[in-house]
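>> received
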Amino acid sequence: MTLVAIRLWLGRNWPALALVGAVGFAGWLAYGWAYQRGYDAREAELQALRAAKQSELFDLADRISAAEAELQVRTRAMSEKSRRIEDEARADSGACRRVSPDSLQRLERRWGN
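>> returned
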């Protein structure tokens, strides 16, 4: 085809070509619009899931912090009790003698018997 033939063909068929171009452009716009709506919907869904998971993780962190605080209190109490027992054992004047029923005063005080 020569350049003149192409110009004649385009001159006769320009309305059809314009229609094809317009339909193609409209399809491209519709696809872009639908894609953006789907993307936005999915992004909103993921944001809601992220917020729910983050809230759950914050609640778990609060529970872990409370458990850690309780563990520290119990550890301090056990350390204090252990220190008191050791101090009592060091202060007992009869710690080196043989065990007899009369020498169990410290244990009876400790266990409350």
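>> The mean pLDDT is 86.
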